[in-house]
Amino acid sequence: MQIPPKVTQRAFDRLAEIGAADQGKGLRVAVEGGGCSGFQYDIKLDAPTDDDLVLSGAGQQVMIDTASLPFLENAVIDFTDELIGARFVIDNPNASSSCGCGTSFSM
Prior knowledge:
Layout: E1 6-7, H1 9-17, E2 26-33, E3 39-46, E4 53-57, E5 60-64, E6 76-82, E7 85-91, E8 97-98, E9 104-106
Parallel strand pairs: 1-6, 2-5
Antiparallel strand pairs: 2-3, 3-9, 4-5, 6-7, 8-9
């Protein structure tokens, strides 16, 4: 049985700040082949589709397509605001290594 990803309150709060739901959109998190480590995250605002797993909180939505779910099992989707910039980040226990930018990983 797969353990779905979790979304932090901080990530939902950031989506509310940027008005994602007001635009009829949520945060889409997908895994694609590529990047310097073999796989990379594709994170963008998008509208949900019928095949998505939709995680909801604070009136906001985070969507994950069915092909990406096995790669994101038990991951945590968060938002960070640091000196190097503000961004959505993924703490993925399935990744055996990741690159310095945090968007590319291997399994």
